[in-house]
Amino acid sequence: MSCSAFAGRRAALALAGLxxxxxxxxxxxxxxxxxxxxxxxxxxEVATPATVLSGDELVLRRGSTLGETLAxxxxxxxxxxxxxxxxxxxRGLDGDRVRLLENAGASFDASSLSFDHAVPIDPLVIxxxxxxxxPAALLYGGSAVGGVVNSFDNRxxxxxxxxxxxxxxxxxxxxxxxxxxxxxLETGDGRWALHADAFGRDTxxxxxxxxxxxxxGAALDPATRVRNSTARSQGGALGGAWTTPDGHLGLxxxxxxxRYGVVAEPDVTIRMERDHLALSGERRGLDGAxxxxxxxxxxxxxxxxxxxxxxxxxxxxxxxxxxxxxxAEHAPLxxxxxxxxxQFEDGAFAALGEEAFVPATRTRSLGLFALEETTWxxxxxxxxxxxxxxxxxxxxxxxxxxxxxxxxxxxxxxxRSASLSNLWRFTPAWSLATxxxxxxxxxxxxxxxxxxxxxxxxxxxxxxxxxxxxxxxxAELALQWQRGEDRWRAxxxxxxxxxxxxxxxxxxxxxxxxxxxxxxxxxxxxxxAVRADFRGVELEGRQRLVDGPWTxxxxxxxxxxxxxxxxxxxxxxxxxxxxxTLALEAGQGPWRLRAEIDHAGRQDRVPDTDVPTGGWTMLNxxxxxxxALGGGDALWFARLDNAGDRLAANAxxxxxxxxxxxxxxxxxxxxxxxxx
Length: 676
Hints:
The chain is 6% helix and 56% strand. It has 676 residues and is mostly beta strands.
């Protein structure tokens, strides 16, 4: 489906008008609750800590990227490569250790390869996002050792639809001057269900408090805008399914396009395109040995081109592949019930151009897993096992390159993962969750075969083709209290990696020919295996303080991660400092007012190659009002971020970009969402 069928914001506005006209004769449609990610048995409670954003809360927190949308949630930070390339970081782990999913299915992009590569998922089309904090390798493979971010839409309808329904959302303002909107329509006859959506977003250079940008160690002129940070994205989808009360079978096609500036390179723009085809099916309520069966398959064609200031294409990244997953819930075996599953992925990656620091590669994986659950006097016990086979092929210099990648080669890995968890509810309100796990992750193609200048990190990166599987052990303990909507949780965790694959400076420099004939010197960085320790604490909760004609709720969270190289004792790079949020929310009738204090501590536990990042405290305010509009349900919102216009930086951002792109300044954002 060509994105030219959608004219960005204009398409969203047109669909919004269509929705408003239809809303007068339609009734509100409510989607069924979605099972929490990593919970294939649909248990009412799970031991794994999870964050879920949906409904009004998601509308308020939506940013232009997944990282911005989730940053500040317990244990979650973002890579922060400017406002457009922003990937989630979970408990200090990022890149290939955090798995990004769409509707529990895998996709293919280049966001884990480099900080300046954006995730091709726009929060405008997400209806729900779930985050598992901690190892989820058992169900999703070694690249989920840090956690999972699962974005849900309804592009493949999974419940019967018998009327026209839809939603539209318009957004304006913010520090990047956002002008965006999205809309969707759904209809069906009780058996067949159809879905269509479109979205578009334009942003300007990010507005920040007055600061002095630093590039290559030299101070530039003071600025109040982050250079080359504009963006434009658009896309849409069509989907359909045959549905019954016990299952569905459907498919969807979608296209995503984005063009955005790279703040580290003032004359470089990335033009990204992704086409995605997904198939999904489920059958519940079966008799016999199997009680339910779920399957999905997807095909992704991803490409992005880095356009130089003169219009020439500097580098092209191409990633395309297929992924599939099957889960079968078996009949109870005594007190045990469980799920058996198979997952496969086959992806081909190629980079062509002056910044192609990795060879063409193909990565294939096959995983088998089992998860079993039983009740016993001390709660609900879950145990699982996963075995994988991963093969990574490098084409080397087969295409007549510069001789940097050597001959074609291949590596095979057999990762194994196991987990044991228990949730003990020892009183109606109190419960204790414990988790033990051992995980293994196969090195990625770039960790194995990289050999070239990487502009995003300002370094010459070298892989190590002799790397073995990354092994780690994890333990977590959490005490939880819940009574009605009131809930609090306090948890501690620890992880020990016996061979953590880390990108570290060697102390050497590599001399390269420059564009003007002058030599260019870059520091050399090597992917090497080290011992590493992670430990941390997380607190989160919500409490109703006043319940009457008007309400008052207190909510908050705090998280702290410590991570070090156990071989040298040095801190690992880009670890978030203490982060804490405290909020009061008052409500009366259709009105809600929220005041939030967001604090980040000073991060001075950094390696020798970095510098400390100062702490900061921000005040954020939000006002919402719900009302009826033409027979539909509407939510208007206004959000004032960084009310004190505090100059602040993100400690999890690489230093070269942190000194060029501070966090957004004071900004007012408003919008309207209509559902019918």
